[in-house]
Amino acid sequence: MDELxxxxxxxxxxxxxxxxxxxRFVIAGDETIYLDGDxxxxxxxxxxxxxxxxxxxxxxxxxxxxxxWIDLPLQAxxxxxxxxxxxAGEVLxxxxxxxxxxxxxxxxxxxxxxxxxxxxxxEFPTDxxxxxxxxxxxxxELRHDAGDVEDALLVRSLVDYRxxxxxxxxxRPGCTTIWDVSHAxxxxxxxxxxxxxxxxxxxxxxxxxxxxxxxxxxxxxxxxQGRLRSxxxxxxxxxxxxxxxxxxxxxxxxxxxxxxSPTIIPLVAVEEGARITAExxxxxxRAKSLAQTELLVALHDAWLAPLGFELATPRDGxxxxxxxxxxxxxxxxxxxxLIERAAVIPDFRxxxxxxxxxxxxxxxxxxxxxxxxxxxxxxxxGEHELVDDTPARIT
Amino acid sequence: MDELxxxxxxxxxxxxxxxxxxxRFVIAGDETIYLDGDxxxxxxxxxxxxxxxxxxxxxxxxxxxxxxWIDLPLQAxxxxxxxxxxxAGEVLxxxxxxxxxxxxxxxxxxxxxxxxxxxxxxEFPTDxxxxxxxxxxxxxELRHDAGDVEDALLVRSLVDYRxxxxxxxxxRPGCTTIWDVSHAxxxxxxxxxxxxxxxxxxxxxxxxxxxxxxxxxxxxxxxxQGRLRSxxxxxxxxxxxxxxxxxxxxxxxxxxxxxxSPTIIPLVAVEEGARITAExxxxxxRAKSLAQTELLVALHDAWLAPLGFELATPRDGxxxxxxxxxxxxxxxxxxxxLIERAAVIPDFRxxxxxxxxxxxxxxxxxxxxxxxxxxxxxxxxGEHELVDDTPARIT
Lengths: 395, 395
Fold this sequence. Notes:
2 copies of one chain form a homodimer. By secondary structure, chain A is α/β, with parallel strands linked by helices. Chain A has helices at residues 6-14, 45-61, 66-69, 72-84, 97-112, 125-138, 264-280, 282-304, 331-342, 365-380, and strands at 33-34, 91-93, 116-118, 141-143, 152-157, 176-180, 199-202, 217-220, 310-311, 323-327, 344-345, 347-349, 353-357.
């Protein structure tokens, strides 16, 4: 059978051991193909139920609910831990990736006294801005080339948000690295513990399907927890907080990275999203993701390269995350046309990158085949040239 | 009619112009009396609906929802603005009160170069800890007595969380004050604009009824916005954020205080809670709250003072917020007994303070009468002495 045929994609779906998970998400019955789960994941049916229950729990238990809610940041963290090779008590959920990165970077600078911070120019903007800000505030040197630095604080994404390239998870001697696993967690096997990783942050609204702007997480290796102190001294990180003691004396464990009251309702979505992911198994998810991005690359080569597309993602599967980036000189208009005329949802990154995300919990092989088929027909017919090219906001 | 009689309380309820608002909240049909709305407010029915709709919007609109969601932090802020005497564009909703205070205090220290920060020992712990941390990090002096400082950064609660005392909202010349209006907003008339207030933070899960740990807000007077810069340089505060520019260049307006992706779903609860409050009218809410705390004080004097209680809240209504604090040597056990044996929910603050909160949107006069009646009977009968006095977690 032709491996680039739709029939073959159907066969792959029939034999997909994870196929049943798709039914556990809210999916409209129309022809839309969603390839942006790497930006915002879908809503699991069980998460909707749990969110409704959490709302009602607020209504009925009122302040008494805090007896249980207060444990949710750690509970949700423990649900994420096995997905990233962390132990129980090493992951805390709350706030945004940005604020968590600020906390860890500030804490690491205080504890390790690095005089240099380094973050590549190509890193995700908030990672760069946070380090730029801390460097200015602390009077340390900011470098955009981490190639040869020693004794520095580094921030590095495990999967590059632009190209989908998967970095090697390896600590650099003499440096402290904060790993940003936002574009990896839930779709790539990560073993922070085995790599001896000290610090990490990550987001939950992509492959963990926890909802728009859902609380993010931070990871601090057990051995480091007592040595690091968040720059934000909030009461929720205080030991025995209701003693309302005069001076700040943080918890000995990862709870010291809490600041204010955790936002409870979305935390249940994080816990449930991580639970579903663990149930599917990160090994099985990674295997499916690799097979799907492989198909995507093969279809690109066969159909799209002749139309002026260029692959920005590594061909070597071991160096690839779960999204594939195609460049095209007319990328912006093609992206708009895909959404408006072909009911395919990718996302766009300036100046010319179309990202196609594979979310192995719910993306089918035929989705990839159909999306790329629509894409090639649209460009071959010049339909994108009919689209207004005014730059607009795309998230 | 005896003004301390239950019949009189019933008459007050019959003539309460806000009485109808109670039906718009989830309230169990049992005998429980909830006097802890100053800690966690009730769930409005319309908020439950809007939360359900927001969850479904995530499920159906997926990433396309961001076209509207991105405006929610400002929209919710604009809904709060009239409750605190702010203009549109002066209030931003997101993160916790703690993180917001950290942002404003850090920004103010950078901009105004104060060499002293001052916060009273009696202030809410997180306010004290945040300033303690910033003082240590910036090498400025921390004072716990703000009585005679000049050229300092001050943090001050408008309503004291322990005693319910309402401070005078007045700027101190030469100093920068960050007002914490957490225990005031939604129950007390606040006019930051008229007072020339520069900076404020506040929480939404008390009288604004936005849910456990709901996103908090910050206020920055229009004229100051361009001069202040958050210490947390996040991508959501960046001008033209999807240009992904190399260097941080924040928005000219209050959006520069955003950090990471806003947590969308709970933001609709903030907006709805503020909307209901504005609909009732802050003047009417304040009038009812004052009348209710007045009744509470009168019943205390008549029934509770003889039983060893002491009023910790000002008798002068113009100096009182919306909760009344009673002290008793056996406060902890009385508080437990009230919850376990009398179905009255107050809260407790060490060492001996029982807080009784009035939430004028849904608290009835008979609730106050019944709660204090149960309380006097319980203590008169010595029932609290039967309660285990092991200190446990109370939030």
